[in-house]
Amino acid sequence: MGKNVGPLNMDDISISPKYRKSHWQKAHEKNDWGKMVEIFEDRIKGRFLKPISLIENDHNIGEFSGFSILALDCLIIETLNQFYSGTDETEGAHDKAFWKFFKNSEFF
Asked: Which candidate, 103, 48, 56, 54, places its Cα nearest to that of 73?
């Protein structure tokens, strides 16, 4: 079973495996870009990349695991777009968020 992080506190919610909202706010107040990049990296790796790599490296994942991988891919695209836009939520315009993400990327 996973670790118990204590009671849910929406004012200081966990935003990645190692960090809480208060860590991000403190780094932001200090304009500590090194810490903010560290928190961002922990969030992306901990919430998206690590679970995807666990799925794809397990040879017994079954024929339907592609859906889970694709769902995580969609979540990471939406999350990255929120970081680019500086917004907390996509708020209903998911199709526009994906369009914007791909349109603004030099890789697509």
From this structure: 48
